[in-house]
Amino acid sequence: MSTPTPQAPEPAVHIDPYERGWMIAAISMLVVFAIAVAIASYSLGIQLPAPEARVDPNTITTSGPFANPGLRELAPGRYEAYIVAHGQGWYFNPRQISVPAGSEVTFYVTSADVQHGFKLEGTNVNMMVIPGQVSTLTRRFETAGEYNWVCHEYCGTGHAAMYGTLTVTP
Ligand code: CUA
Known about the structure:
Elements: H1 17-43, E1 50-54, E2 70-75, E3 78-86, E4 91-93, E5 96-100, E6 103-111, E7 116-120, E8 126-129, E9 133-141, E10 145-150, E11 163-169
This protein binds dinuclear copper ion.
C-alpha cells in the first residue's frame, strides 16, 4: 500500500494577473499622491485654510480685533490684516490695504452675517468666510503690484460688487 504523494498547497488567495496589475497601479497612485501632498505642505508651504478662532458675529463690530479692522504692523515686514465681509451693503471692511514689497501678511477674515468668500487673485490665498469663524492664511508678497480680492461665494444681489485691493508698493 503506497502513501498518497503530497500535493503542493494551493495559494491562499488567487489573484488574476490583470487584477494584480490594477492593484499595484492603484497603490502606486496613492503613494504618489501622499508624496505630492507632503511636498506641497512641507516644501511649497501650501496650507489648508484653518478655522483660527470662533467669534460672535453679533459683537464683532463692537469688540475684539474686528471692531477696528485693517492692517497691523507686528514688526518690519510682518503684518496682520483683519477684514470683515459684510453682506448688508456687500463690501469688505477695509476695502484697501497697502504693504511694502517683501512683506508677509497674515489675513484674518470673518463675516458679519452670511457666508462669503475671500480669494486673492494670482495667489493661493483662497478661503471661505463663515459667520462665527475666523479664517486665516499667511503669504509673503515679493512682487509690487495690485492684488484684488473677491468674494467667491454667492451671498446675495451685491455679490459681484464685493471686492477689495491689496497694494504692494516697491
Ligand atoms: Cu460676499 Cu459673495
